[in-house]
Amino acid sequence: MSSTVTAIPARMSAGEWRTRCDLAACYRLVDQFGWSDLTNTRITARVPGPNDHFLINPYGLLFDEVTASSLVKIDAEGNKVEPSDSEVNSGGFAIPSALHMARPEVNCVLHSHTVAGCAVSMQKGGLLPLNQHALQVIGDIAYHDYAGTARDPGERARLLADFGDRHIMVLRNHGLLIVGASVAATFVATYRMERACAMQLAFQQSGAEFNPIDGEVVSSAYNKLRIDVPGGGNDPGRVEWLALTRKLDRIDPSYKA
Ligand SMILES: [Zn+2]
């Protein structure tokens, strides 16, 4: 169980409360890391259990205002399944819902409009194999052409087809879409992609000559087995996530309210 968990409210499963605490922590961390975009974009998580229920932010709150109990529980169509005074951006849930429903292993979907992610999304070549950080994620990246707001079923189907079984999607000329088996894995994958994008921009702005990486090293990065944690290594739920939530607890533990 994550260290984010506090006392479980009555009439709520331990799994739901744990997911609420993790998702609220994720909203706070996304904001702290400078990845939020006012009230735009969203992060969703699947509620553990037999129902296709999901948690989403109350529309209109800044990400640093989100708490575990304020998250809204919705069905796959974006309808509230419990009484709540909060509104949800059900139109914005169309793509996350399609991903959650088509891929049972996807328990969290994180969409962002970060400066670095958007800037790479505008580049024809996308994320380039420039350094170790890029090579850790490059084999797990899919690309999807911009088609305006993605609310019709045809656009959702095209996006799912482009995504395949990968975990990172560059929405061209728009932003990033990251999925994972847990909130922790999704946040850490986002961190790694963000960092690789920022490094690419910094290098391009320098105008310096590129020091090439051996071709075999690059091609093995493209061809490596896709796993939930790009780059492999430790389970982020056991390592990075615990450290990140300790950091949040030191700064402002109110996300667990
Ligand atoms: Zn967007």
Folded structure, characterized:
The protein is of the alpha+beta class. It has one domain: L-fuculose-1-phosphate Aldolase (3-Layer(aba) Sandwich). Helices cover 38% and strands 11% of the residues. The protein has a 7-stranded mixed sheet with strand order 3-2-1-4-7-6-5, with helices on both faces. β1 and β2 form a beta hairpin. α3 packs across α6. It is globular. It binds zinc ion. The site of zinc ion has 5 residues, from loops.
Q: Which terms would index this structure?
A:
257 residues, alpha+beta, L-fuculose-1-phosphate Aldolase, 7-stranded mixed β-sheet, 7 strands, 38% helix, binds zinc ion
The strand order across the widest sheet is: 3-2-1-4-7-6-5
CATH class value: Alpha Beta
- Characterize the main sheet: 7 strands, mixed
Unreliable spans are none
CATH-derived topology? L-fuculose-1-phosphate Aldolase
The amount of beta strand, in percent, is: 5-15%
What is the total tally of β strands? 7
The helix-strand sequence is HEEEHEHHEHEEHHH
Number of DSSP helical runs: 8
Q: Specify Rg, calculated over alpha carbons.
A: 18 Å
- Structural class determined from secondary elements: alpha+beta
Helix content: 25-40%
Distance between the termini: 17 Å
Shape estimate: globular
CATH H level, superfamily name: Class II aldolase/adducin N-terminal domain
